[in-house]
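Batch queue: ligand-bound targets. Current item pairs a single chain with pyridoxal-5'-phosphate. No template structures supplied; prediction is de novo from sequence plus SMILES. Inputs echoed for audit trail.
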Amino acid sequence: MPPRHGGNLVWAAAIARCAPEELLDFSASLNPLGPPASVVAALHHGLGAIRDYPDPACTALVQALAATYALDPDTLLVGNGAAELLTWIGRDCAACSRVYLVTPYFQDYGRALRAFAASVATIPLDQVRHDVQALAAKLHPEDAVILNNPHNPTGHLWSRSAVQALVATGATVVVDEAFMDFLPPATSQTVLPYVKEYPNLIVLRSLTKFYSLAGLRLGYVVSQPERLRRWQQWRDPWSVNALALVAGVAALGDRPFQEQTWQWLAPAREALQRALDQIPTLRITSPSHGNFLLVTTEASVLPLQRYLLEHHRLLIRDCLSFPELGERYFRVAVRQPSDHEQLLRGLGQYFGVSISPSQLLNVKAE
Ligand SMILES: Cc1ncc(COP(=O)(O)O)c(C=O)c1O
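Prediction returned. Tokens below.
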């Protein structure tokens, strides 16, 4: 059975009959420029830290985050990936009358909410994509909503003021900004600065995607101190390991890596999108502000996924974990031009396209 999450290289390598590291992974949306060399060097340097228990307050990383985002350190809680913090979000949301999720939604929301028997209601993305009023009108202060901005898997971006309209209802609003770092500061729609003002706002963030640290597990939440103190008491005191703390501080300090990523992403995403658009059976459903593209096809993508693994050692993300999308969608990460060529070669052969990958990638914007 295919994995429910992207990046399951062991499963994919068994189908491709190769070692996991020989696969070209388009399924997990990780920054191809990472992990930053500064982080790798800091990890080498910091190896001695594995001897002792890690700092349960994650002091150095909390200070670095507070300085980077101009936040009060008391409003920060670091976790073993955003996924760990989603568990505690699930617990708080379960105490609300109803939790609204925008479909399709990241499957881990379901896991965290089911764990605490939350009462879940859904609203389709198409109803709130351009106007959150349809959702705001449903919300009471005793409700909660989890919004993912930019949205996985479509890459849709809500403006800061749209999110604020939800927060103003008084409902508990969780904004999962796991992919927000990919937007340069000038276009970022982060609502981190609103946390001070709104006790009902919880902002969830991850270092996994932007810094390519999926295996280390590192995320954080920004919310009111009273809420975070409660979560701190419930959880494992050492959930964030010593090396993750070292890596996090180094990553936040690496401004050149951040700039490089911002310069790389938009042109790389546009070139890949234009190339995919040339393949007749494929369609990109909406403009993406993330480091991934959601593609729809005329038939099930499962045979395509298998073909790309068996013949090209390429892994794309089927969207079975987003039940509203079904089998006719796949998601690909934006990577480097040479990786895009390989993807386009595989897709071109599968769909019988005669144009070469480099020609596809050189299609100019209209
Ligand atoms: C929208 C979204 N939020 C959160 C996460 C979890 O991130 P982390 O690796 O920090 O647990 C993911 C990972 O795929 C994600 O796609």
